[in-house]
Structures
1.
Amino acid sequence: MTAAISAERLLEDLNPSQREAVTATSGPIAIVAGAGSGKTRVISRRAAYAIETGAVPADQILLVTFTDKAAGEMVERMVSLGHRSVMARTFHAAALAQLRHFWPGRHDGEPLPAILDSKLRLLVPLIGRLPGGYRFTPAKDMADTIEWAKVRRIRPARWVHEGGDRAPIPADLFARVYRDYERSKAEAGLLDFEDMLVETVELLEGDVEAAALVRSRKRWFSVDEYQDTNPLCERLLELWLGESRDLAVVGDPDQTIYTFTGATPEFLLGFADRHPGARTVTLAENYRSSPQILELANRIVADGPRGALRATQPDGPRPAVHRFADAEAELREIVAWCRAVAAAGVAPAETAVLVRVNAQLPAIEDALTRAGIGFTVRGRRFFDRREIREALRLLRRERPAETGGPLVAAVERLFVERLGLDDVAADAGSEGRERAASLELLLGILEDLAAADPALAIDAVLAELDRRGASEAADSADGVNLLTYHRAKGLEWDAVYLPALDEGMLPIRQAKEDEEIAEERRLLYVGITRARRFLALSSSSRKPSRFLAAIEPPRAATPRAARGVAGRVRVLPGAPMAVPVAPDDSLLEALRRWRRERASADGVPAYVVAHDTTLAEIADARPRSLPALRRVRGMGPTKLERYGPEILAVIDAAG
Ligand code: ATP
Ligand code: MG
């Protein structure tokens, strides 16, 4: 085991403000500072310093982090400082442990109910029963609003009075869905994520002995990413603290990105008022990113209360900004960029592509898989997914005899008949969508193989897939990271690519109010500040994100080969130039006409039927079958089922 590092050495490589925060080991303290300024580092050092100087025993410390991954990393940091026994947990995990301990004693010996992993499962059928066009309301938006209500402890019966107009549907309808959701959850004997916190709060509020026991175990707290705490977490924290005043919070108001679930930076900004005598420390130096990256970040949120971030790292290459005519060109660039940064010496695990929504990931996974570049999506490998292993087993068993194109068609039939690929109605949940997307991706790989070899037979397919699976496994844990901006919070990589900076994607189309747009801007700030040395941004639609204009004025397209990474001239194979592709206008017009009619027949806005970008992609791709149509970005299973045949008819009619 690593020996504990002495108090003196713990301070050695800190700047004066960081040192001030680390040595203030008792009483309330808030550290308000920008990205990459060492906030998380201060939390771990401060805990180690407090133990070393005898301010608190290690087992009385609780370090609260935002995600399980961050908790794991915090434990690693503490281990490397020689303190294995310090506890780091999310609010939810810490609450769950307490609840599990006290639950049987308060519920006739019953164990804690199971936790509902996703609200969508219960919500989808309830939304389907809503009147008129409301039944097309995205379940994710409803789930977010329920979460927002629950963290404010607004019950369904009070929603109409206290919820305002926050819900994506009229307040009375929302209150009904919320009530029915709570009811079906109770009937299934489940607790959801917010229930864990609500139940713990009620336990500690109502049971003096339980509260005393909990407080005797942990009495010294630090909370990371405190700008995204919500009223429920805040209440829990107060209950954990009791009479103790040993609370440190760290955060960056400019990185508040969870207000849609009820988070608010007010707790961070009002900390000193709520905790008389609190010390406030700011950190101005950034230790993560090159000056070139910081300059860009500062243009996104220039004049917050903290002022601009000051660079300490050496110069790096200028961030690249591309505008592509379509998503295909952008995908080719992502592949080329991954290769280029690898060639410049960056390990794949030190590379990340960040997206606004998970639905963007399959297309990128597809492009990387076809290019033979290993990647990790939330820790899972492509060839290791259940549906892909199932599919390969099926192919090995059935061994279709066709070759080339007909072989791909035969495999597709097998997937439809045996793996339920087309069974879109049965599972509208996100898990079903991911499963379908993986199988589609596998079909896409087969299509590529068949295009390269018209005599392609099943043996060659299986051999090639085995080869790719093995190579993915070999370099997987360290593949390119694919994740959302929201998951990327607090993390850092040498090289970061931010694609699809388009109106409708970032800012996301649901963001309309100024406050919502401001949060989208903060997301971009979070994305940019994850990068240490290499950063690339691009748009791929006819309407680039308004934030791009803030970063760089539009400029003439330059052939990629003239730029390259790290200032080196490099010709990137297959790298596109930003030349607009003429869309097929007559088909696009016909699709728009169809959308107008369909939207007015259903009584919903046109974008609910299909997005402009989706129609444009359909017009470009001219798919002739349902599976081909499904490969168009924006065509999920539900849309496919509802509109697929009509869209194909429009394409047919256009010739
Ligand atoms: P975020 O706002 O993104 O969560 P943060 O403020 O928590 O960022 P850290 O992750 O703690 O920042 O630190 C950013 C990087 O800078 C880390 O790699 C960290 O090790 C390094 N770092 C922090 N302080 C110093 C320092 N005084 N000297 C050298 N490196 C430092
Ligand atoms: Mg941090």
Note: Residues 383-473 form one domain.
2.
Amino acid sequence: MNGRFPDGFLWGAATSSYQIEGAAAEDGRSESVWDRFCRIPGKVLNGDTGDTACDHYRRWEEDIRLMEELGLSAYRFSVAWPRVLPEGGGPVNQAGLDFYDRLVDGLLEAGIEPFVTLYHWDHPLWIEEAGGWRVRETAYAFAEYASAVEARLGDRVRHWMTLNEPWVTAHLGHRTGQHAPGLVDSGAELDAAHHLLLGHGLASMALRAGRPGREVGIALNLEPRRPRSGHPRDVAAAALEEGLMNGWFLDPLFGRGYPDDLLARTGWPASVVEDGDLAAIAQPLDAVGLNYYRTEVVGDPGLRDEDRPPPLQNDPAEVTEMGWPVTPSGLGEMLRLLRGTGVEAVYITENGAACPDTAWKDGAVDDEDRCSYLERHIIEAGKAIGEGVPLRGYFVWTLLDNFEWSFGYARRFGLVHVDRTTQRRTPKASAYWYRDVIARNGP
Ligand code: FCB
């Protein structure tokens, strides 16, 4: 496609606090659940931590200059809860909020629209010690935190996202243990998901109570799951996985409650759901952020290929450094799914690829593979706009090579290379490629 995107379409990049800020003990920040998780041997590759990360807490001005060079019209970042409320029951730490205050001013001066995510997985350790997302109190605490951030930034920030990818927090954090807090407890997963959604609803109300005219949304990772074959057991396995990622969150957010078929299949007792919770979760949503990376082929693990009817759905041959299949068509599917919700604005709040980044040319990473990944997804996004999806912006994951959770610094998603010893930033070929896309307002 060489068509232009609509006027006013936002081209951005996304980051998150724990992945880039560093300055883990600065200005009164307390420990987060990720600081603690990184210290458990074997949880993060090479024993990496976010203690220093990209040192963005100190280098934010330089980073805004980089965004300006790329011509970004929007920037999505998250606020670190332990900077704002370092202690349970304690006062709001204005010194921690000062950082975001300066950042927002700097972005606005540079003509870059700030998109604030309140929670990108790094809740304070004191919250976890009080039960974390397994307990309902955390949803209330989250809403109080949302109010504190709104009180400070709400005069300038128009775009708010409550949570980033609640599925990841619930599933990887509570069931598989790959993410903080590292629990392996199938019962805890859906309780945590419910409290996350409740927290979203309560925080949305708090954000709206502040000032009118702002856009409140949530960033979800939605993914299609393809059945390995047409065998009913494969179809059911894929539907279950897909439902737990997508419908489990979309249905209650859009006022339909938890899907009955999934309630039956999971056997979740829903004992944590109290009267009024579903109404609180189903707050009006001004926007949905879609974080999209991949699809996956799913089969019933108990079935052998010889028992499956042909044709078998193969795993896509092209994968990124994460081992994630490159499947741009799934982006279009998820955008159409969101069109069906009737939501007024959709943003692609994350999309990007981890690449080996081993080829260098003229002193910069020559990442044609990343450019190709991004281009194919942007083309798919353009098609979806043509099909009536109210897509208003696209954010590359991510601006800087950063702390990629359990992979530490061993996976690079950035448009800009970061030297881990010197913190020197060097735009990759993809950064210049993206700059040209932005300048043309289209791929
Ligand atoms: C998403 C996360 C983001 C980053 C990318 C690769 O699930 O929101 O922080 O880790 O994956």
Note: The first strand starts at residue 10 and ends at 14.
